Amino acid sequence: MAALLYDRLVTDQEYVQRVRRQRPSALLPVIAAASARWHSDTWLESPYRKYTPWALADIARVSIAYGNEHRGDGSCSEDDLLRMLAAYASLTDIMIRDNGNYDSVSGWLLRVSGEQLT
Predict the structure, then answer these.
(1) Which of 53, 58, 82, 88 has its CA 20 to 30 A from that of 113?
(2) What are the domain boundaries of the chain?
(3) d(CA 92, CA 72)
(4) CA 59, CA 37: separation in Å to the nearest integer?
């Protein structure tokens, strides 16, 4: 089951690599369709409550920033997106990994504000 794929914390590098498996031209339309279906009023009813607006936005950001059109076979399914959402939900927290030092706290604040305060 894709939503329960990770029973451990996922590193940022592993998460980015998971998103990069799909071409942006194939992934972004799937994200757009999921975003239209599971918007801010309905994401709590989404499968496994994984289709959060901020997770979909981050996957799109990673795909645009790091993806390329020479990966994968050009197809992307809803299950592929659910696997990416599961990886996002299992991301290790920088503050825990870096023992809460100044750089990790400021990085976490920057990430959270960028995700939720826009």
Answers:
(1) 82
(2) 2-92
(3) 26
(4) 16
CA 82: distance to chain centroid?
Answer: 9
Cα separation, 21 vs 69, in Å, equals: 10
Pull the structure tokens for residue 57: 């936005």
Average the pLDDT over 57-62 and give the result.
Answer: 92
pLDDT band at 1; cut points 50, 70, 90: very low
Measured CA to CA, the distance from residue 81 to residue 34 in angstroms comes to: 9
* Partner residues linked to 69 by β-bridges: none
CA distances in angstroms from 51 to 6, 22, 67, 111, 115, listed in the order given:
16, 18, 21, 19, 14
The answer to whether residues 49 and 6 touch, using CB atoms and an 8 Å cutoff, is no
Closest alpha carbon to 66 in 20, 114, 8: 20
